[in-house]
């Protein structure tokens, strides 16, 4: 009797073993998407002033669609004197005139909607512009707005000369404090002088920022990338007798005393209050989503320890950002890295992230040397294979789909404060972010088709006549075509729901496996200029033959070619996707 009863039960149990209830859950729009970052000044210039603009972006949305991206994140488009190219915002509720008008923006959102592309904006909560009404009112002595900023008395040195309150440094060199005669005090600016830090201990500031979020989300914006969040709070000075304390030296010998990296930012970064502010913003996102049914996405920009980055996901009952950016493939590895280094960098985020949250893959942005330059042009397809086929959200900085490289920007042409503030016509190159911001390369026409102007705001990179979207569209094999194929492949369930495992097969060749419901894919990337033969049977359940589904531009293989997985030949810098 017992045995008879157990038999059907056993059947149910063994069946349940094969089906993971999490696997087929419906994903939110952002969980399987590609987020495409556009730096608006450099994407497309519609009015010939040499500066990219919103109408330009609208006119090029088809490109975004063609590469398979589902969301666009725009670097700031708000009214700004452009001391930090839009990250210094004078009016959070208005569109910067060089970029266009509010109508242009609404048109962009509408056109994107037709193409099923979400628009994400850049929220810059840490600071405003010194030309904002808030700061101008503060200078006039308006109490309400004085309290929007962080003011501190200077100190007299032994010669009786007034000096900044303490040793805090700006990210762009020199003191983080600037004296204002009108107030008789110094204000804090962790970035350029024109970016006064907001005072988050003031509830008015907190409410104001929430209203800014509401304003744009109500316009149909699908979320925000949140800028420099870990700089939001400074330590409570009351804990230090009412004076902000000095930060200790970092001990780094590769930087001089004016550099931000010469200090350990224990009082100006990663303060506990910051995380709770992010959780409050998430509540605002959810409040709007509840009203109109569109789930909103928050991506936080934080360069910090992995444990601190993880805190942005949420804590206990509190939800935070769905996507604390994973910068490990920018900060931890480059062309010189071994396969093991790559494996470790990839697994870091996956290991630390909460089990119910998503990974995300970022290899470039407007602050970092371009992916093709950092990894080398031969690895562009291989790196895009990682970004698009690893488990989680893929992020592409405009140009990565065609392997755009850094442009050369002379000292004379340099405009980025991070470069200019070095005052050093030789070493500025180590700091300037202009090279990764040079105009997008559309075709071989004047200014790479970016603009009809005689002079563009940054020079177009050399080599654009060959390296551009049009050339890659017409060529039989190109980075662009590989990217598009990857974006298509990414739609397969195995890349949405499938498991992941990786192996550094030797010092040069990194491989990972994705599998789901009996389907198995293998992705193999050779980081070096060397020929290899690798044995993929080190992966569990990988035996027999596998067919090439996709390969990098320089690969000698063909789609459909079949190989013995125990002895796969791998060419220099080759990237291959195989199906078992
Ligand atoms: C972020 C931005 C960077 C900007 C800084 C200050 O790091 O990505 O471009 O300069 O914040 O807003
Ligand atoms: Mg323009």
UniProtKB/TrEMBL annotation:
GO MF annotation terms: alpha-1,4-glucosidase activity
Reaction(s) the record says it catalyses: Hydrolysis of terminal, non-reducing (1->4)-linked alpha-D-glucose residues with release of alpha-D-glucose
Glycoprotein is among the record's keywords: yes
Protein family: Belongs to the glycosyl hydrolase 13 family.
Signal peptide from the UniProt entry: 1-16
Protein's UniProt name: alpha-glucosidase
PROSITE patterns to which the protein is assigned, alphabetical: PROKAR_LIPOPROTEIN (PS51257)
UniProt keyword annotations, A-Z: Glycoprotein, Glycosidase, Hydrolase, Signal
The organism's taxonomic lineage, starting at the top: Eukaryota, Metazoa, Ecdysozoa, Arthropoda, Hexapoda
InterPro entries: GH, GH13_cat_dom, Glyco_hydro_b, O16G_dom_2
Pfam families, per the entry: Alpha-amylase
Species for this entry: Leptosia nina
């Amino acid at each position: 009797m017992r045995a008879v009863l157990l038999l059907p039960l056993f059947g149910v149990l063994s069946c349940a073993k094969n089906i993971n209830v999490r696997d087929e859950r419906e994903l939110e729009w952002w969980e399987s998407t590609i987020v495409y970052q556009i730096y608006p000044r450099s994407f497309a210039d519609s009015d010939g002033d040499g500066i990219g603009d919103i109408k330009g972006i609208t006119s090029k949305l088809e490109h975004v669609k063609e590469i398979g991206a589902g969301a666009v994140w725009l670097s700031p488009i708000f009214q700004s004197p452009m001391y930090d190219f839009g990250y210094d915002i004078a009016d959070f509720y208005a569109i910067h005139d060089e970029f266009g008008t509010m109508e242009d923006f609404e048109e962009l959102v509408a056109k994107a909607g037709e193409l099923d592309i979400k628009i994400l904006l850049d929220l810059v909560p840490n600071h405003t512009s010194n030309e904002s009404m808030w700061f101008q009112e503060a200078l006039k002595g308006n109490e309400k707005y004085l309290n929007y900023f962080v003011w501190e008395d200077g100190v007299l040195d032994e010669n009786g000369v007034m000096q900044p309150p303490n040793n805090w440094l700006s990210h762009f060199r020199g003191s983080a404090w600037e004296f204002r005669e009108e107030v008789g005090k110094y204000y804090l600016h962790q970035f350029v002088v024109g970016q006064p830090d907001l005072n988050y201990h003031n509830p008015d500031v907190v409410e104001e920022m929430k209203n800014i979020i509401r304003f744009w989300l109500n316009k149909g914006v699908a979320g925000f990338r949140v800028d420099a969040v870990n700089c939001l709070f400074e330590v409570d000075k009351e804990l230090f007798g009412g004076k902000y304390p000095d930060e200790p030296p970092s001990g780094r010998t590769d930087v001089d005393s004016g550099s931000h990296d010469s200090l350990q930012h224990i009082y100006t970064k990663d303060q506990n209050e910051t995380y709770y502010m992010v959780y409050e913003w998430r509540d605002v996102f959810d409040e709007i989503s509840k009203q109109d049914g569109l789930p909103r996405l928050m991506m936080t920009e934080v360069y910090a320890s992995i444990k601190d980055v993880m805190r942005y996901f949420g804590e206990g009952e509190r939800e935070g950002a769905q996507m604390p950016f994973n910068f490990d493939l920018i900060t931890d590895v480059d062309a010189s890295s071994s396969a093991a280094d790559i494996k470790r960098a990839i697994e870091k985020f996956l290991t630390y992230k909460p089990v119910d949250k998503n990974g995300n893959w970022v290899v470039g942005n407007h602050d970092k040397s371009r992916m093709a330059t950092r990894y080398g042009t031969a690895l562009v397809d291989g790196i895009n294979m990682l970004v698009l086929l690893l488990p989680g959200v893929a992020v592409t900085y405009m140009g990565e789909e065609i392997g755009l490289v850094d442009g050369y920007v002379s000292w004379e042409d340099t405009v980025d404060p991070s470069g200019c503030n070095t005052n050093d016509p030789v070493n500025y190159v180590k700091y300037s972010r202009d090279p990764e911001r040079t105009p997008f390369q559309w075709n071989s026409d004047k200014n790479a088709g970016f603009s009809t102007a005689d002079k563009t705001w940054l020079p177009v990179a050399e080599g654009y006549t060959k390296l551009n979207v049009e050339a890659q569209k017409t060529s039989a094999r190109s980075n662009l075509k590989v990217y598009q194929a990857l974006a298509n492949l990414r739609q397969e369930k195995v890349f949405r729901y499938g498991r992941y495992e990786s192996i550094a097969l030797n010092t040069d060749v990194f491989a990972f496996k994705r599998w789901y419901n009996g389907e198995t894919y293998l992705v193999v990337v050779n980081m070096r200029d060397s020929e290899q033969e690798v044995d993929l049977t080190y992966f569990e359940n990988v035996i027999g033959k596998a067919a090439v589904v996709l390969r990098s531009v320089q690969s000698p293989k063909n789609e459909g070619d079949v190989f013995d997985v125990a002895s796969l030949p791998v060419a220099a810098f080759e990237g291959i996707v195989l199906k078992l």
